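fyi for ur records
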Amino acid sequence: MPRSSRSTSAKGGQVTLAMVAARAGVSPQTVSNAINSPAMLRPETLERVSRVIEEMGYRPSRAAQTLRTRSSRLIGYGVQPGPASSPVLDRFLHALSQAADEAGYRILLFAAPPGLPSLDGYEELLDQHEVDGFVLSGTEHGDPRQAWLAKRDVPFVGFGRMWSGRQIGDWVDVDGASGTDAAVEHLVSLGHRRIAFLGWERGSSAAGDDRAEGWLRAMRRHGLPTRGRRAQSVNEIDAARTAVRPLLDGGATAVIAASDMLALGCYQTLRERGAAPGRDVAVVGFDDSPTAGLLFPALTSVAQPLEEVGRECVRLLLARIGTPDAAPERLLLAPSLVVRDSAQAVGGGADGGRSTGAGPVNGGSAEGSSAGSDSAGSNAPSDSASGSGSASSGSVPGSSSADNNSPAHGSSASSSPAGSSAAGRGSAQNSAPGSNSAVGDASRGSASAESALAE
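which gave:
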C-alpha cells in the first residue's frame, strides 16, 4: 500500500507538504524538489528543508512520487527456491533491503526458477512497469541476463562477476580465491603441509571454481603437492561425508571446504573415525554461517562482507539510474578469515580458538612464511586441472563497494571504470574461473551423494 501523502504530527494532526513549506519558509515546489530532485537546490536550502521534514515527520506519498517522476521506487530481485533458507542469502537480502530503504526504495522479490540463471520473471516485471532496475545474483558462465537488460537500457547491478564473454554493466563481488588462499597461508603457518580441498563439482559453480583456484595457487606458491588432495561433492552434508574420506585416507592433516555445509560433512566423517576436528585434522569452511561459531569445536571459516555488498549494490544501481551513460563500476571485495578452534597446529597445538581475523587478505598475493617443506612429496606434480586462470588481485583506483561474498581486515574495495583494473582493495580479474556471488550456492545441495575424488 502506498504511504499517505499526509503524516501524523506529534499533536495528532496531519502534516502536509504545504505545512512543511510554511515552516521552512520556502515554496511547496522547493519542498518537492528537496524530496525528488535535491541537486536542484542550494546546499543550505536543502539542509533547512530536510531538517524541517525530519522534525515534522513528513512522509511523501509514494504514489504521488511515481506519478511525478515516472519512477516506482522499486528494485527487482529474483529469488531461487531452495530446499532450505540460506543464512548467507538472508544476510544479503537484509543488507540490500536496508540500504534500499535508506535511499527511499523497496526491494520487490519475485520467484526465479531453479538451476542456471534465466530471464523468467524479468520481462514480466518490465512489461508491467513495476521496477526501476534489478539486482542480479548467482551469476554464472553464460548468464543471459546482463546482455538482455543492457540491450533494453534497463539499469541493473550484479552481485557477482560476469564469468564469460564481454564484460557488461556494473557489479560487486567477493574475491573467493583470496579467501581460500588466506586459509592455506594460515594453515601453513601452523605447520600443515598436507592441505586438502573439498569443493563443489568442477564447472557446477563459478564461485566454487574461484574458491578452488585460491587453494591451488597458494599450494603451488609453497611448493606443496596437490595431486590426490582435491575432492568434489554437491553442497550437502551426506555427500560431503563420502567425498572427504579419500582425502583423510591419503593423510591430509587439514581440509579447506568450499562452504560451511561441506565442512560439516568433514566433521561427521572425522567423528565416525574417532578423530577430533581441530586436534587431529584442521578444518576450514567458507561463508562463516551462524552455525560456524556454535559447532564444537568452533569452525574456522572465511567470512564474506555481505553488508557492504548490499550497500554497494544499491549505490551502484542508483548511480546507474541517475546517470545511464556513466562508465561502469566493478568492485571486488576481500573476505576475511575468522580463526576458531577447528584450525590448530599440526599435532593439536593450542593456536586455535581466536575469533579474530587472519590479517589482510590482499588478493591472496601475500607470501606467508613456510615452516619447512612436505617430506612426503613437496616435489610431487601439481594438479593442473583446477580452474582456468589465476584470480590474483591487482590494484585499482576507486571507491569501495548472499549462499556469495566484509572486507578482510580493514581491506576495502576498489572500483574501476569500464573494466579497468582498480587500486586499493582488490581488482576485478575478468579471467577468474568462478563467481563469488554465491547467493544460490548454499542451496545447490541435492539428495544425491554422488561425489568424486579429483586428480
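The CA atoms of residues 120 and 399 lie 33 Å apart. thats all i got for now
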